[in-house]
Amino acid sequence: MNYNVDKDGFYGEFGGAFIPEMLYHNVNELKEKYLGIIESDEFQKEFKHLLKDYVGRPTPLYFAKRLSEKYNTNIYLKREDLNHTGAHKVNNTVGQILLAQHLGKSRIIAETGAGQHGVATATVCALMGLECIVYMGEVDIKSQAPNVARMKMLGAEVRAATSGSKTLKDATNEAIRDWINNPEDTYYLIGSVVGPHPYPDMVARFQSIISEEMKYQLKEKTGKDSPDKIIACVGGGSNAAGAFYHYLDNEQVELIAVEADGLGVDSGKTAATTQVGTEGIIHGSKTLLMQNEEGQITEPYSISAGLDYPGVGPLHAHLFKSGRGTFLGATDQEALSAAYQLTKLEGIIPALESAHALAALDKINLKPTDCIVVNLSGRGDKDLETYIKML
Amino acid sequence: MNRIERIFKEKQNILNIYVTAGFPSLNDTVEIVLELEKNGVDMVEIGMPFSDPMADGPTIQNSSEQAIKNGITLNLIFEQIEQIRKTVSIPIVMMGYYNQVLHYGDVAFFEKAKAVGVDGFILPDLPLKTYQEKYKNLLNNLGLDCIFLITPQTPDERIKLIDSESSGFLYVVSSYSITGSKNDIQQGQVDYFKRIKALDLTNPKLIGFGISNKATFNTACEYAEGAIIGSAFIKELEKSNNIKETVKTFINGVKE
Ligand SMILES: Cc1ncc(COP(=O)(O)O)c(C=O)c1O
Predict the structure, then answer these.
(1) Is residue B45 annotated as part of the catalytic site, yes or no?
(2) Is the CB of A239 inside a 6 Å radius of any atom of ligand 1?
(3) Is A3 within a domain?
């Protein structure tokens, strides 16, 4: 089985570029040029340099001793929370901003839900001196005030998406519309492994630094470059794609993707796309998505805004359907408990998204000899208000 | 010869009006289309409301949201078209997004549309390649047209490819824009219309996006076989308390 993207942009039957003609030119230009640019020595040199000196990579692979004792196994945390801006998102924005510069684009647009990707985009735009416009659902703008303020301080313009449900998917629609209206100078900087080809593959490549480092760090620490299991949360799926990337073809490694069950898979208030979703097209990609009997895309729910997306990237739809990935879910409550537990045992406050990955430790069989990596995609500063309120 | 081919043979300066199914009220669409035909409209495009219409502007999106709230479904749209076809003879094109077609069941969707009297489709996010591989034969056999968009950024070679692969007419997107964005026609657009006219394409062309009144309609007709009006008409429907009057006034204003 092949888990990488094919030349038409498909992962098995998922992916592709289902876009209106107005976007064809831009998406096609990206498709023709992205590999040539990002595989060039010049690009790689710049990218690796920024990841090291600006983002602070490599991020540590930390053996979580007390957490391991609690589960009677060996748990390593891949510390993406220690990146500049507090999450894995910046790996992708650094990569895409360099690409946008190579393409000669001067205006950057992005969508954001909780504001993490918006902040990571505004950050690299400030770094490069580029105009930045971030679309954000009106509802999210109200609930994520600190990130809105950060984006503004970084010089970005935050535009409210007032259509539909006024959340992430609507912000994405607005960003796409902006791109349609400004095809020549504008680059659309997508925040996860979603959207039309080549975005899912491109974002996965930028995030693959996570598993690239994991390999040699594991080797150093355990003598073996692969773990038994890798656990990551899935919103659109970019941190999971990065953590799985270099192990996709190594079937000895179990890849565990954790979605947000919200109030429960059957509650109607969930973001567990692979559990309640069906095949269809969202934001230009054929994948699994949450939709009603009329094919209208429905509103997801999770306590964690970063997992609150009604689709998953096409790579994950393929991992799910082919059985290569194990897909689990964690409810709001389970994620909260896992976050409080990590804080007490290790002195690390995880992002609510990452807490979903931690919660999966309670749901799988763990052997004392197992080597487990949990991708700690982000830090919990942005979620403190929720943590304090729910304590 | 299907209804679309025939209308382009028989008439010039084709006026195609877009209506969102189920808007402003759930069951208004039948009356609106009847009145459009009565007032001399040559073709109608019936929009299938979608939750995430990425090629549409705020006016059409709002009307879609309203229609979904009103309870519109694909089956209801088919019923309404069946009803319309009892008296209406102008071509009917359905416009919507590929997810809706897939979800209904693609083959079943096209067959059902044919059965109720639809003549063609505009599915902006259906890739040309997918159409060629999966639907071209089916639609040809059913005598249905699949209409594709071209934009100012579409290179001549691709325009020719789209022209040779599609049927019915070419939907010439007037500018860099989502539906309903702009209000007049600029020199750059005229150059683009001229470039397309000079290509000598097989299919007739209708210019859409930003056509809103008599002046823009007339300009469009200089360079193409006609034009499509969407948002400007939907805006009138939003304000309307008498569909007959609204349709009459609007269409007379454009055509005279
Ligand atoms: C810390 C963190 N983890 C995970 C996610 C989910 O995104 P993805 O599934 O693309 O990694 C987000 C999104 O905002 C995030 O901020």
Answers:
(1) yes
(2) yes
(3) no
